[in-house]
Automatic annotation (TrEMBL):
It comes from Ruegeria alba. This is Heme biosynthesis HemY N-terminal domain-containing protein. The chain crosses the membrane at residues 31-61. Residues 63-92 form a coiled coil. Keywords: Coiled coil, Membrane, Transmembrane, Transmembrane helix.
Length: 246
């Protein structure tokens, strides 16, 4: 009986020791798990944070690119609209300008181009010299290299006018491209100008007096196409001639 009790106690002690060892093993296992989880967490954040920051950076960059593209598109749309508006306004101006230019009766003066031949006929038949003063500015270099203009030493010379302002009053009946005009820059003197419709150019001036070519044929021969005379000289010759025969 005593031997049976001793064996039973021995078995109980072995079970208790085994239970204690099992408990210690569970605690150690848990510690290992916690440590592994902790290190994994540290490792995850060391990798995840840079990745997250990179993703945020890429997102911010992409968003900025999209906003910039949208902004650029809006600006281009505004510029395109402004350009279209400007082109439409320019087209309207050109249409209005062409309408004024080609009207048989003009409500206001129009500036036409003019060449040597038309200027000669204006001087020869009306005594008007369509000239302008051309100024070539004089510059000198002062101390320090500054470029300064001295108007008192400008070079001035009289040259043929390249434009003339006139207003059509009416079309000459039965004559193509001939108009009675007033010369806006010459006290609204009346004259007959030949201007082809659709052009910016005065071809020539014809005399208002129908008998001009018969009465003043010698003057026409003397002055027509005379390249040696300035417009002012042709105009003066006309005036002297007309005063002489009056």
């Amino acid at each position: 009986m005593f031997e049976g009790f001793k064996i039973q106690n021995t078995l109980r002690g072995w079970r208790r020791n085994k239970s204690d060892e099992s408990g210690k093993g569970t605690v150690i296992f848990k510690i290992i798990i916690y440590l592994a989880a902790f290190f994994l967490m540290i490792l995850f954040w060391r990798i995840a944070v840079p990745i997250l920051l990179f993703v945020l950076f890429v997102y911010a960059w992409h968003r900025n690119q999209v906003e910039e593209a949208a902004k650029k598109a809006r600006q281009e749309a505004r510029m395109a609209a402004a350009k279209e508006e400007w082109l439409a306004a320019q087209k309207e101006k050109e249409i209005a300008k062409a309408k004024l230019r080609d009207s048989d009766i003009q409500p206001e003066p129009y500036t036409y181009e003019i060449g040597r031949h038309a200027n000669e006929t204006l001087a020869m038949r009306y005594g008007i010299a369509n000239t302008v003063v051309e100024v070539t500015p004089y510059f000198y270099y002062a101390k320090g290299g500054a470029k300064i203009r001295n108007p008192d030493r400008d070079t001035k010379r009289t040259v043929d006018g390249r434009t003339i302002k006139l207003r059509k009053l009416e079309k000459v009946i039965g004559k193509e491209d001939q108009y009675i005009v007033e010369l806006s820059d010459f006290r609204n003197r009346k004259a007959i100008a030949v201007i082809e419709k659709g052009t910016e150019y005065v071809k020539t001036f014809l005399p208002i007096d129908k008998d001009w070519f018969e009465k003043h044929s010698k003057l026409e021969v003397l002055l027509k196409g005379n390249k040696t005379m300035r417009l002012s000289e042709i105009a003066k010759t006309h005036r002297d001639y007309i005063l002489k025969i009056m």
